[in-house]
Structure formats: C-alpha cells, structure tokens
Amino acid sequence: MSATSTVGSQRQNEDRPSIRISRRALDFLGLSLSYEVCPSGIDESAIREQVAERLASRLAEAKAKTVGDTIKDAIIVAGDAVVSKDGAIYEKPVDIAEAPQFLAEFSGHTVQFVTAVAVLNSATGELLTAARRSFIAFRNLRNSEICDYIRRYDALRFADAFEADAVIRA
Questions:
Q1: With respect to CATH, is domain 18-169 assigned 3.60.70.12?
Q2: How does pLDDT run across 33-62, given as a tens digit for each residue?
Q3: CA gap 117, 65 in Å, rounded
Q4: How many other CB atoms are found less than 10 A from the CB of residue 96?
Q5: What is the DSSP string of the chain?
Q6: Which one, 11, 41, 136, 143, has the greatest CB density within 10 A?
Q7: d(CA 84, CA 96)
Q8: Structural domain boundaries of the chain?
Q9: Is 80 a catalytic site residue?
Q10: How far apart are CA 15 and CA 12, in angstroms?
C-alpha cells in the first residue's frame, strides 16, 4: 500500500454495513467492487513512533478511526507505509528537495518497506490491525536516474519518495 489516506465503499443493502476499501486493496484481492474515496485528512506528522511497524499501524488506525467518526455503519479499511533503513524511519518527503536525498541514501542498500492495514467496523468500534515488513534492495543509482524518477513520479505522495509498484516495475 502506498501512503494513502483514502478508503472506498460499496453499499451492500440496508441490513449490512458498506465495505470501505482502497483501490489498491481491491486490485490486490482481485475484487471489482465499486468504491467511494474518503480522505481522512489526518495530520500524519502528529503521530510519532520509533519502530516502523508501530508507526505504520498507528497511522493506518488513525485514518480508519477518523473516517469511522464521520461514516457510521461501515467496514473501513485504511493503510499506510513507511520505510526503515539502519534504524531511521523515512516517511513522505517534506519537499521536492528531500525526495532525491532519500533515493540517494537508498542507492546500493536494502531498506525495510513496512505496510500496515487497519480494518474498522464503525458500527461496533471493532478494530483489527496488521503490519508486515518486506525488503527492497536498491542497486546503485546514478544521479541522472534519480532525477528522472523524480520527474516521472509524484515522489511527495509516497513513503520514502518512491512508489513501491513503480520500483518493482522498473
């Protein structure tokens, strides 16, 4: 999952809560449900943790709870992702100058890509959260490749300045 604050929905019927799930999750699950995007609008910088799994989990939970406060009787699925390298946590770059710095630091190294998902039943308040870690090994990147990447992708939208899907495709 990318660092997103969106969820989606499909109204089942009046007796059942709607399903709220991100487009990426729908694609991953092979589902073709319609959905509604509901940005949480949380201030991610207000949530701090030293452990990447805990930070991603708390961010996903905050997004789900915020949306759940406004949309009742729904199953809300929210997620977040962060990167960790040598104990340092990388989130979304603060500006366009920080994005290439992140990528240069990752060049030739392996980073931990941590994704978390929170599932909230807004009718009951039941919340389930899971976080998983994967590893991405970067080959040595030339400065021109980093600059080209920044031009082609919206690096400010993604944890650690890169879209994981784009890195895998490249």
A1: no
A2: 666 678 899 998 899 999 999 999 999 999
A3: 12
A4: 11
A5: --S------B--BTTBPEEE--HHHHHHHT-------------GGG---SSHHHHHHHHHHHHHHHHHHHS-SEEEEEEEEEEEETTEEE-S-SSTTHHHHHHHHHTTSEEEEEEEEEEEETTT--EEEEEEEEEEEPPP--HHHHHHHHHHS-GGGSGGGS-HHHHHH-
A6: 136
A7: 20
A8: 18-169
A9: yes
A10: 8
The residues pairing with 85 across neighbouring beta strands, listed in sequence order, are 88
Catalytic-role residue among 43, 69, 73, 80: 80
Q: What is the pLDDT of residues 99-136, one digit of tens each?
A: 899 999 999 999 999 999 999 999 999 999 999 999 99
Q: Is 145 exposed, middle or buried (0-12, 13-18, 19+ CB in 10 A)?
A: middle
For the entire predicted model, the pTM comes to 0.74
